[in-house]
Each structure stands twice: as C-alpha cells, then as structure tokens.
Amino acid sequence: PAVCAGNYPLYIRSVPTENELKFHYTVHTSLDVVDEKISAMGKALVDQRELYLGLLYPTEDYKVYGYVTNSKVKFVMVVDSSNTALRDNEIRSMFRKLHNSYTDIMCNPFYNPGDRIHSRAFDTMVNSMMMQVC
Amino acid sequence: MEQGPAGGSGPAAAAAAAAAGTGGLLLPLSETEQQRYSELFSRCCPPPEAAAGGSSVGELFRASQLPPDTLHQITEVCGAKRVGYFGPAQFYIALKLIAAAQSGFPVRIESIKNELPLPRFMALKNDTEVRYGTPAEFHGVKFQVPHATLEKNSYKRADEGDKQEPKSPPMSPICSPPASPSTYQRIAQSYGYGKARSGLEQQHGAPYEVRHSTHQQDGPSSGNYGAKSALTCSTPNRSLAVEREQQDSSSQYSDDPWRITEEQRDYYINQFRSLQPDLNAFISGSVAKNFFTKSKLPIPELSHIWELSDVDCDGALTLPEFCAAFHLVVARKNGYQLPETLPETLLPEYLQAACLKPVRDCALFDSYSEPLPSSQQTRDFSRAEKSSAEEVPDNSALLQDGKKDDKQAVKVSTTLKTIPKEFQHLTVKAAAQEPNAHRARPRSRSYSSTSIEDAMKKGEEPPTPPPRPQKSHSRASSLDLNKIFQQNTQAVRSGWLPPPPPALPPRPSVSQEVVLAQPPSKPARRKLRTEAQGLETPELSPTINVTSSLPAVKPHLPVQKQSSKQKRAIQTAIRKNKEANAVLARLNSELQQQLKVRNALKISDKAPCNQFCVTSSSIEIRAKNRTVVEISTEMKAFNENTLPSFLQQASAVTCVLQHEKTEKFV
C-alpha cells in the first residue's frame, strides 16, 4: 500500500521486499488511473462510496486498488493476483482502516500535511494489515 | 556483606560454573557484568549458600519489567527449571537473558553470546549502575537510597550515564561522594528545559545524596544505565523507603519512570494552567506544539510523544493527556527511550483519576482496570451532549469570546459542530483541499462542497423535517422571501431558473440534483432552495467544506470508535450544523438573487416590504461580501495557520455571517 498526496508518495510499504522497485513503479503509474477516475466523476457526488475507487486495473500478476480521500490524498494498494481470497469487502475495510489511521496522523500537530509519514502507530497498523493478507 | 575483591573472585568461579552448568556453553562475562551479577546474586542469596532463594530471584526478575511469559521463558532457558534451583550458573544466564530480552532480543541462548547491556531492574535501586566498583558496600539498607525521587535524579543521571560510561568502570567508594555533587551540577546545567522542574528534582536529589554520601558507594551517583530506579525488592529496603520524607506517598508503590509523582503532577498542572486556565478544557494542538517545541526535542520525537499521549486523537490535549505528554518529554530529555505504547501509568483515565483527585490512595490502582474506550466514550459522549445542548448559545459565545478564550472557543466550537476528532479531521481535509482548490478553484470546490452538501442534504432530509422550517423562518430574510415568493407566480420563479445556471456554469447538474433531491421538504424550504440552487458562491464553499466534509468523515470514524448512542448524538449535531451552513449558503445566494431581481421585479402591493427587503438585502450582500472576502483571505493564509486556528477562524466568520444576517433583518 502506498499513500500519495499531490502525486508524490508519503508512505510506501511492501511486504515481500523483492521487486520493490516494480511495486513503486506500479503505484506511480496507477496514480494516473486514479486521477482519471477522479476527473471522470466530474461534479458527481463524492461520498464514501466513491472514495473507494475499486479495482483500477488488473495486470499480469497483480491487482491495483485505489482510494481517494476528500483532501485528494490517494491510497493505492497492490495485491498479488494469486491471492484470490481477498474480497472486495476486505479491500474496502483495509482502505477504511488506512483512512482512519491517516486521519489520526493528521491530528498530530507536529505533522505537516505533505510530509512523509513516520508515525509508528501507522506503521504498526499497516504491517499488521499486510500480515493478515499475506 | 561481601567485599569487592571477594566479589571479584566469585564471579570468576561462577563463570566457569556457568560454563559447566549449561553443558559446555561458554558464557563470557565481562568484568562489569561479573561484578554486577555477583552483587545481584549475593543479594538474592546471601553467601555461602550456593543457590539463590526462589522468592528473591522471582522478585528480582519481576523487577526487570519483562512480561511474565518472558520471565518463564528465561527461567526455562537458563536451566533453573531443569535443575530446580537458581544456582550461580543459572542465575547468571538468567541475568544475561533478561538483559537480552530488555534489549529486544529473543530469549535464547544464542542471543546472550553477544555483548549485551546490563539487565535493568526497576525494583533495585542503584542496580543499574554500570560501574559498580564496589558491590562491597552493600549496606543493603542504606544502599537502597530511596529511589523514587531519585527516580527523577536518575532521569538526569541518564544524561550523564553515557558520558561517564567510557571511563574506567570501577570507582572506589571514596571518590563517589565527590562525584555525585558534580554530577548533579552538570545535570542542572544540561537540563535547560525543565527550569523550575529541575530545581524541584535537584532539591530532592541533593539532600539524599548528601545524607547518604558518607556511607555511600559510587552506585547511585555514577552514570546510569538507563536507570529505572524503584523500590527495592527486599523487605529491609522497603522499610527504608518509608524513611524518605520527601518522597510522596503516591509514588512509593512501584516507582517507575513512567509514573508521575505528585510534584511532577503539580508542576504539569501549573504548566497546563499557564497555557489554558480552565483545567477541564483542552489545549489545542498548535499551542501544545509551540510549548513542546521549546523543549528542543527533535520534531519526530515530539510527534511520537504526541501520538502516544493524545489517545483519543482529537488534536488537543486534556489535562491528563497533557501530563502524560509532558512526562514523556521530561523522560526523553533525561535519556529514557520513548516507549512504543503508552505505559499504563500514563493512560488518561489513570491520570485523570489522579489529577482530579489529589487524594493519593491506592484506589488509583483501580483505574488501571478502567477500559480506555469507555472512558473515552463517556468523555466524547459528554462532549456531544454538550454540543447539542449548547449549540445556540455557543454561537454568540463564540463571537464574544474572541481571542481571549481562543482555545476554549475552539473546543466549544468543536463540540458545537461535531465530535472533536471528526472536526479536526475534516478541517484537515478542508485545509488540505485548500491548496488544491486554489489551483483549480471553481471546479474542485464546487465539486466537493456542493456534492457533499447535496449528500448531506439527502442524508438529513428524511429524519429532521420539523426543525428546519423553523430555522429558516428564524432568519428574517427568509420570511420576507417567503412572502415574496407567495406573491410571485410560478412563472416568475421558474423564470429564475435560467439565470442561475449561466451565473455559475460549473454547477448546472448540481443544481438540478438539488431540486430533485428535495421533494419531501416543506414548501418554504423548497422555495428557498430553488432560488438558491445556482447561486452558492464559491467564497462560501470553504466554510461549507469545513462542516460538509463531515459526512464523508463521519462514516469512518463512528464505525470504529463510537458507540451507537454517541453516533446518534453526533449525527444530530452534524445535521444541525449542516443545516446551519446550508441555510447560510442559501441566504447568500438569495441575497444575490434579490439584488439581481430587484430591477426585474415588478413592485406589487407589498412594495414597501419588498423595497425594504431589497435594500436591506443589498446591504446584506455588501456585508456578506466583506465577510466573504475575509473568509477568502483567511483561506489563503491557511498555510501558515494550524488547523485548529483555521477552524476557529472559519467558525468565527461563519458565526459573524449568521449574526449579521439575523441582526439586519430583525
């Protein structure tokens, strides 16, 4: 999963650490898809439903899911396609947890929006979430 | 008690025994470790016994603050379970394992082969001295210098510890007393942040030091290995603890660096008062940030401290949270590593019980068991209740308070709008959106605000129809407008529809959606809405953003952290807020509409009314524009402001707007 704001990543974490560069690249390219989805909504309603962008695009062996917050902070998640046990609901709940943790970080007055995220609580949450899946 | 040299020879034999005992495992013990372990061993089992008493060993292990499972593991690994007693070999291995566990290594034989720091035992005062030149002076009783206050001293010593470690380890008892005063002097200088606080602690430390220096050995004065001074583990020492007159009774039990003593608490409370006179109110994030930045700790650490102490994640610190944060800062400044999770003694409900009830009794222990969420919930719920009850008075209160009660007003406004956490979240969101919005101003704002508002309207329409028309009638302008509309024909009204879309081209679809979404509403409301649909000004949208993004945030947070009762209360508060904002927005658009319509409108028999209305509306519009300009300038200045102050400004402006409207038309 990656948290990106303004098209630069605030936070990237991947579990199997090989191919990390490939994941980074994937996340970056998927940002384009996210932007496209956002703009396609136009003046449409933005509620929580739309915050979850769903499967952005399936590629060879992994799927990319996107989620955007009201403040245009994007969460991108790349999962292995072999992990068929992951259902849409689970992805949604993972994004929801990410969003909640992100808002908790926001509360911290020492955190400036746009900084990289160093919060240990956030790390713990992300790690536990990824461990659950992998 | 044993003498130094004797102790020196002992460990050598013990090391060999350790080697033998563990089936050939050669356990290298450094000299310091040897001395330390031998001292500990002798404490647990007075020589010439070969085995340490089980109970004292158990107490010692518990004092290491490791979880019971780890201690069991250690006992197993070191072989004590196997042989059934704690011989010197097992004891030393166990000590090494404790050190390993405290350093974060798994409890295994392999991990103790490396160089390890000495194990730290809370219960044993002075144990953690690295240089233990003369474990000899084990005048056990005197030795256990009443820690706890010295817990504070040891904070400072921790600073010095690293400096002094490189020096040669053994220090004769003779040179220790002189060392201690100098140590303290150094500490006094290095601890700039504490100001009065260090003086406080120094006072505690110095008298003790003086008192005990005569028969003191180097232990306590010398550098600290992350000393967590605490109660002694043996009964004679405990009796000594009573001797310490300066020590507060509340901290007598289980002193650890994460427990706040009375003096510390009083100091924190005074500091809190200096920032925020009302002890029951909050310190906002920006204020706290400035305050803690003065401590010159690096920002990531301050960020971590905040994360630990702000348990309800609302961007503000209550008194217990503030005490916890301050305590963590102090501990960090004294060299303690920040924990990963908040220690129990720093949890807000624990501290709250302690802070609010100055009576020190062991009932404080009971607060340990109080579950955090429930206390949090009750607190939030009370806030939410307060919010719904005090919404109206708060509006005026906000205006009157002005700058003086900044923080309180912020908090009041947060309770006014919604639960504080969500409010902070959405101000962040609104704020974070701001920079983006600046770049793509009309589109993004309209996109987010109106759509959110529509969603919000949709959400709130069915449940609360009754209050709304009342609200709209409370605004005198809407009353007049209603009259106007009643006179006007449907044609005129529909005639207005074409003008709005061109006025704000980006929003035609939105306006239509608004119309479609509102069929169940009351007639007055509908009329207001139709004319207002296209005319919501971009300038007003930021304020709408602030509260409109509530519903987006709302689904996340209540799911996780609020009870259903609170959810309902919060949702009603949210709805009321949304209504207020929606009405404000419509009002603005109405006024603009009126201005345009003034010339087109044929004066009917209600001419005076209309004229009055129209002229007053033009005044309104001008006033509104002024405030809107203020809003927009504040928006631009947001990047410098922190979130709560932005919030406060936005809310203040909103209320000013409200007030102006009501005043003019009444």
From TrEMBL, chain A:
UniProt entry keywords in alphabetical sequence: Cytoplasm, Endoplasmic reticulum, ER-Golgi transport, Golgi apparatus, Transport
Name of a matching Pfam family: Sedlin_N
InterPro entries: Longin-like_dom_sf, Sedlin, TRAPPC2L
Main location, first listed in the record: cytoplasm
Gene Ontology CC terms, in alphabetical order: endoplasmic reticulum; Golgi apparatus; perinuclear region of cytoplasm
Biological process (GO), any one: endoplasmic reticulum to Golgi vesicle-mediated transport
Localization per record: Cytoplasm, Perinuclear region; Endoplasmic reticulum; Golgi apparatus
CDD domains, per the entry: TRAPPC2L
SUPFAM superfamilies per the UniProt record, alphabetical: SNARE-like
Gene3D superfamilies on file: 3.30.450.70
Top-rank taxon, per record: Eukaryota
Family stated for the protein in its record: Belongs to the TRAPP small subunits family. Sedlin subfamily.
Protein name as catalogued: Trafficking protein particle complex subunit 2-like protein
UniProtKB/TrEMBL annotation, chain B:
GO terms, molecular function: calcium ion binding
Listed InterPro entries: EF-hand-dom_pair, EF_Hand_1_Ca_BS, EF_hand_dom, EH_dom
Annotated segments matching region Disordered: 150-184, 209-230, 371-408, 428-477, 492-546
Domain EH: from-to ranges: 33-117, 264-349
GO BP term (any one): endocytosis
Compositionally biased residues, Pro residues: 167-180, 497-508
Biased composition regions of type Basic and acidic residues, renumbered to the chain: 150-166, 380-389
Coiled coil: 570-597
GO cellular component labels: cytoplasm; plasma membrane
Keywords per UniProt: Calcium, Coiled coil, Metal-binding, Phosphoprotein, Repeat
Record Pfam families: EH
Domain EF-hand per the UniProt entry, residue ranges: 297-332
Protein name as annotated: RALBP1 associated Eps domain containing 2
Recorded name of the encoding gene: REPS2
